[in-house]
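Thread: Newbie trying to understand structure tokens

Hi all, I'm a second-year student working on a class project, and my supervisor (Dr. K.) asked me to get a predicted structure for one chain before our next meeting. I've only ever worked with sequences, so writing a 3D structure as a token string is new to me. If someone could post the tokens and maybe explain what I'm looking at, I'd be very grateful. Here's the chain:
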Amino acid sequence: MAVRRDSAVGEQGSTSSNKSRKSEQKVPRAEPLANETRTALVRRARRINRELAEVYPYAHPELDFENPFQLLIATVLSAQTTDLRVNQTTPALFAKYPTPEDLAAANPEEVEEILRPCGFFRAKTRAVTGLSKALTEEFGGEVPGRLEDLVKLPGVGRKTAFVVLGNAFGRPGITVDTHFQRLVRRWKWTDETDPDKIEAAVGALFPKRDWTDLSHHVIWHGRRICHARKPACGACPIAPLCPAYGEGETDPEKAKKLLKYEKGGYPGQRLKPPQAYLDAGGRPAPPLGAA
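---
Reply by user tm_fold:
Sure, no problem. This is what the structure looks like when written as tokens:
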């Protein structure tokens, strides 16, 4: 696990024994933010992103896909389930229905049976077949590469659109999911609660070219360390920069038990992850039904 322990636990004070050093081991709190200037906020936000980039150098979208259509469908299916479960389900879906035309004309009952493991399979069947029909009738079976076109598709909002634009088309975008919303507010990057306003506020802190990777870094951190109910503060690599330090477990050993990683020891849920992730020691997730 590529967590920088020097950042995660802070500097130890001078003591006369290892035992006392361990008992006094604390993560330094961030500086008070009451009078933080705009320039200071930008610098702090960008430093957090740089730190997270070191912790998650292989950050990537955690949905398997080979083309924009697959990513679009997988993103829609990921609602109220895990990316891992989607990745375990979509191979059979795309093998049988490789194009929008195929999925638009599919027998709903057959699609439902494939999507059953994802939960809400009837609603999701209606969503992906309806989406595929719109792609076929309005865009010639091709996923559009513009935000204004994507959000016209049934069931596609800005969050889904930016996932597709950033990862299938290489066009920068900020993905404001629940993890992203929680962390940027916890870090005092913004007080906004509306996703569109959060997107605008955070986007203004970073160069546009950084938006897609920033989204990955924040979302990965939210899934693995900075959880909603029990953030692992004592094992967090950006604790010295976090104004919310102390909301979660601060003891390093107890905090480590809260970390959420796969069996391989590295983040990642894809069946076919990027080579950089594999080179870092990560392992692919198991297929559906595997022990």
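A couple of things are worth pointing out once you decode it. The mean pLDDT is 84. The CA atoms of residues 174 and 211 lie 5 Å apart. Feel free to ask follow-ups in this thread.
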